[in-house]
C-alpha cells in the first residue's frame, strides 16, 4: 500500500545510507542541489573504496535492480587527488547514482567539457574556476554560457 506513494527506486525495500568518511561530499552535493533550485536529500547510497574494472578508472557507480546504488572509489588515486578533483569525481558518480544521469561528451562554447558528466575527469583547477557552471549544469541539465570562465 505504501508503495503507491513511494518513488519506484525506493519501493519495497529498505533504503541504506552508508557513506562513511565521504559524508561531507554528500552534504555539499545536497547543498549544491539547493543552491541550483532542485533541492534533494540523499537517502539511498553507499560510498566506499573498492576494486575498479580498468586501471584508469578512479570511480564507478553501480546500480542494480532493487539494491542501494554503490559508488566505489579507487583508494590509491583518491589519495593523490586534490579537493577539487575529489569533489568533481564524487559529484560525477552521484550524478550517475543519485541523479541517474548518463555520460555527456559534448564540449561547450569555450572548448571545455560541457558537463561534469563527461566521461573523463576534468582537471581540478578548471573544475574549480567553472564550478558554478558545472554545478548548475549537473542539477539543471543545462547552464548559461556566461558562467563559463575558461582556463
Ligand atoms: Zn561516469
Describe, in short, the structure shown.
With 151 residues, this protein is an alpha/beta fold. It has helices at residues 23-35, 75-78, 83-97, 124-129, 131-140, and strands at 17-18, 45-49, 59-62, 70-73. Helices cover 32% and strands 10% of the residues.
What does this structure look like?
The protein has a single domain (13-142), classed as Collagenase (Catalytic Domain), CATH 3.40.390. Helices cover 32% and strands 10% of the residues. It has five helices and four strands; from the N terminus they run βαβββαααα. A four-stranded mixed beta sheet has the order 1-2-4-3, with helices on one face. The termini are far apart. Zinc ion binds at residues 92, 96, 103, 119. Residues 92, 96, 103, 119 line the site of zinc ion (ZN).
Instruction: Write down the CATH class.
Output: Alpha Beta
Query: Which ligands appear in the coordinates?
Result: zinc ion
CATH topology annotation:
Collagenase (Catalytic Domain)
Major beta-sheet overview: 4 strands, mixed
Distance between the termini: 53 Å
Low-confidence stretches: none
Please indicate the count of domains.
Answer: 1
Percent of residues in helices comes to 25-40%
What is the CA-based Rg, rounded?
A: 16 Å
Strand content: 5-15%
- CATH architecture title: 3-Layer(aba) Sandwich
List keywords for this structure.
151 residues; Collagenase (Catalytic Domain); four-stranded mixed sheet; 5 helices; binds zinc ion
Spell out the blueprint of helices and strands:
Elements: E1 17-18, H1 23-35, E2 45-49, E3 59-62, E4 70-73, H2 75-78, H3 83-97, H4 124-129, H5 131-140
Parallel strand pairs: 1-2, 2-4
Antiparallel strand pairs: 3-4
Zinc ion (ZN) binds next to helix 3.
Amino acid at each position: 500500500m505504501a508503495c503507491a506513494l513511494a518513488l519506484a527506486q525506493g519501493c519495497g525495500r529498505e533504503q541504506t545510507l552508508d557513506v562513511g568518511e565521504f559524508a561531507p561530499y554528500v552534504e555539499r552535493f545536497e547543498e549544491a542541489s539547493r543552491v541550483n533550485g532542485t533541492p534533494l536529500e540523499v537517502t539511498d547510497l553507499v560510498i566506499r573504496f573498492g576494486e575498479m574494472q580498468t586501471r584508469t578508472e578512479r570511480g564507478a557507480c553501480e546500480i542494480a535492480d532493487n539494491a542501494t546504488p554503490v559508488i566505489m572509489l579507487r583508494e590509491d588515486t583518491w589519495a593523490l587527488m586534490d579537493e577539487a578533483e575529489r569533489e568533481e569525481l564524487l559529484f560525477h558518480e552521484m550524478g550517475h547514482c543519485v541523479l541517474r544521469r548518463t555520460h555527456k561528451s559534448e564540449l561547450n562554447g569555450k572548448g571545455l567539457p560541457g558537463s561534469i558528466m563527461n566521461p573523463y575527469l576534468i582537471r581540478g583547477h578548471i573544475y574549480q574556476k567553472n564550478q558554478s557552471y558545472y554545478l548548475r549544469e549537473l542539477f539543471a541539465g543545462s547552464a548559461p554560457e556566461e558562467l563559463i570562465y575558461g582556463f
